[in-house]
Amino acid sequence: MEPRYVQVNARDNVAIIVNPEGLAAGVAFPSGLALREAVPQAHKVSLRDLEAGECIVRYGEVIGRANRAIPAGFWVREDMLDLPAAPPLDELPLATNVPAPQPALHGYTFDGYCNDDGSVGTKNLLGIATTVQCVAPTVEYAVRRIQAELLPRYPNVDGVVAITHTYGCGVAIDAPGAAVPVQTLRHISLHANLAGLPLVVSLGCEKMQPARLFSSDLPVLGDGPAVIRMQDEELRGFGNIIGAIMRAAEQRLEELNRRRRQTVPASELVVGLQCGGSDAFSGVTCNPAVGYAADLLVRAGATVMFSEVTEVRDAVHLLTPRCATEEVGRALVREMRWYDEYLGRGHADRSANPTPGNKRGGLANVVEKALGSVAKAGSSALAAVASHGEKVMAKGLVFAATPAGDFVCGTQQLASMNMHVFTTGEGSPYGLAMVPVVKVSSRTSLAERWYDLIDVDAGRIATGEATIQDVGRELFQFLLDAASGRRKTWTDHWGLHNALAPFNPGPVT
Ligand code: CA
Q1: Mean pLDDT within 23-49
Q2: Is residue 100 part of a domain?
Q3: Which of 209, 230, 256 is the last residue of a domain?
Q4: Domain count, the chain
């Protein structure tokens, strides 16, 4: 492979090295630039002489200021950049450059499970919701028995899922922050892929009582609430408790087994986008390809959610002009401000975000990470903003506020989504039991090394073998196939399903 770098924007004064082994000192590029020292793959090279104090520009945006002179052809390491201030939230242009809708896409469909509430599932699962962590091992025991003894008799049911978590007691349940985990768990418990009706296992003495979890009428199975309370007087012994769960499970499995997939428009997809283990390629390969797929989904009438406040914060000035209305813009600013204050209470700021892996992957700081991250949002107008724990009901491109940590973000997105796209540069085996998780790699070297974990390789964009549009269309089709059960993601193939981790900004007692 000939020496190759990627310069994203004509204004950029740095570029990243494409060659998998990196490049040695003395190597010259077709542009005439020669390396003055070795630079690893994905790391930045200075395209011209940079003065001390000069802005370092990537994606056409300032990612930092050089804290020393950096001659052309040098490796621009993270410690050579000073982190710029985040865009001030009071001065952002709102809805000033709203993209016109792109032509609608008609005729794209998938085969899903239609629910009474109008939602569409991509899996047909028996879900067992829990109100408190205390009951989790009991429910997991019951799930093993259900899988072994009952599920083989119900071939149209895709599986049984225990919705276990660490919330439910020992928390200030009336504090304002408590609404976030309670709402998140409510929406997950009533998820489209559970046909909107879970069994519920409660302990009895916990703070998050079933009535609080559901905030309205309890889910009903047959002629009574679908709730098994372990401390109920009539349940004598563990065998009796498991027996009660098994009987309720069998009743629900009878119902679920009668369901069949139906062809529905692609507009019924609710796709959550996330990145984890990002690197400097993420913003030029997988995230733009996901952004192209996001545009196709929006054109097909679907919902596309992107999240991760700390990875949007430094690029928010690129998003507020794209908000469909000033009101949406103010909601986006509100979510940024909420998180600034949340981090401030912990004496942290957004610079706490990048991981050692991000930095090994060439990302100098959170600004560079954010500019690459928002490429996932494509080029559509931002139609709506949802707060932490809120279920996304709008169609089109939506920002749903969540933390950036993969399993916390994924848990919160799960409240709304029926498909998940996860981009990664360094590699992550992350998966969720309740929805298909489609993995997209930023580099071909990762897709080759993890050939049985990565579903779509976007690294071909950096080497010129494929375009952003090629990979975006491939991902769009993959989503329709996986949503229909025609194609299995690798995480579902291996059963790699992370524990749920609801975000709890409230106090623990
Ligand atoms: Ca993440």
Answers
A1: 96
A2: no
A3: 256
A4: 3
**Mean per-residue pLDDT for 328-346?**
96
* Spacing, Cα 259 to ligand 1 middle (Å): 34
pLDDT tens-digit series, residues 193-232: 999 999 999 999 999 999 999 988 899 998 888 999 999 9
Range of the domain at 143: 125-256
- Residues around ion ligand 1, judged by CB within 5 A, are 274, 276, 404, 406, 409
Distance 408 CA to ligand 1 centre (A): 8
Q: With contact defined as beta carbons under 8 Å apart, do 356 and 303 qualify?
A: no
How far CA 221 is from CA of 124, 158, 218, 323, in Å, comes to 17, 20, 10, 43
Tokens standing for residue 476: 């769009």
Q: Are residues 410 and 340 in the same domain?
A: yes
Burial of 497 (0-12, 13-18, 19+ CB in 10 A): middle
Residues 286 and 364 in one domain: yes
What is the CA(42)–ligand 1 centre distance, in A? 19
How far, in Å, is the centroid of ligand 1 from the Cα of 409?
6
Q: Is the pLDDT of residue 129 over 90?
A: yes
- State whether 363 and 328 are in the same domain: yes
**Domain-located, residue 211:** yes
Q: What is the pTM of this model?
A: 0.95
**Burial of 498 by CB count in 10 Å (0-12 exposed, 13-18 middle, 19+ buried)?**
middle
Q: How far is the CA of 433 from the centre of ligand 1 (A)?
A: 17
